[in-house]
Design a protein that fits this description.
Growth Hormone, Chain: A, MFS transporter, transmembrane helix, MFS
Length: about 400
Amino acid sequence: MMTGSLRRRYYLYSLTETQGLIAPVWVLLLQARGLSYTDIGFLGAVYWAVLVLAEIPTGYIGDRLGRRQSLLMAAVVTAVGIGGLAFAQTLVPLAFGLAIWAVGITFRSGTADAWLYDALAQSGASDTYTHVRGRGQALKLAATAVTAVIGGVLYSRLISAPFVLTAGLLAVNAAIVFSFPAVSDDSSRSQSESWRFSTTRRDLKHLLDQPGVRSFIGYTILLFGLVEVAKTFVQPIVVGNQVGLPVAAVGGLYASFNIVAAGASATASGIERTVGRHGWFLVAPFLLAGSFILLPVAPALAVPSFIGMEAIWQVSRTFQYSIVNERTPDRRRATILSVVSLGGGVSAITFRAIGGVLADMSGPLLMLAVLALVFMLGAGALLAVTPSVVFRTAETNISE
């Protein structure tokens, strides 16, 4: 397939992957069902626990059964989980719906990026990965911005509407996946060898033994945990007495989050050229954490802090995937990326569970400040022992 056609299909896939209709209201749905902050934190931990448990099996599916089939399953399973949330009324059914949603996400996690990298490589354009992924994410975020406005308004009229419509959009996403070209991970090896756990362990060891990779991944895992707990409590903070926005306006706020994040994602390659990946990780995440620390004394910073969070995380995640992809064997790329996502899931479980309890004890603003301080201490220590070589582009693509 020509590179231009491949890009267009990926961009259309990214557009229909959006879950913007429910993004600004899914926590509000939990509150509307009478759940406490601790309950919400617990459900967030359940969601990420399922992600962690399912990451490796679904990563193997992406490598062994085909990445296109895995992406198809992602769309279908996610649609079932999100549609189920529309009708769940109590803690257990809500947990079940979130668990199905999480399983669907794991079919996509790592697999979509591995498919894109390999498809571009087959076209001789692997060096455009950062650019193509960044643009694709920008389109997804732009679609999320538009649908977030609609979702906030729909929710204020009929709580279940954003969830049912999102399930329908994911059905369209599944149809687009059918048009994707299949990619070959490694024609020189049999699938049975790629399937073996010993191969995964060897390739993961190869990745983690490279200078600075362990500490860099640990750093991004901590950042992911902080971002995830903040995302959980955006809605209670901006709708609650801390900011006081009406529910119908939350969609517009989420739209602004995503517009800024889309701009940041689209310029990721430019940031890489000018600031450098090392410079980015030295400054941007620490600015975010610092803004969270100020929230208890300056609640008005909540909105700009959350806007900055979306932009910072989009660029950071693109750089993280680039660094891991460049140092990972072709045949195991989806599985290795799933292992990295697994580490982020453990961080999210911890941050969300602790965050829910702390929010009930002291309020969500002070909770975010405390966890941001934890991030700054841990991430600072990890970055201090990370050599700058890890942030440089790897020249050799590993295939053996």
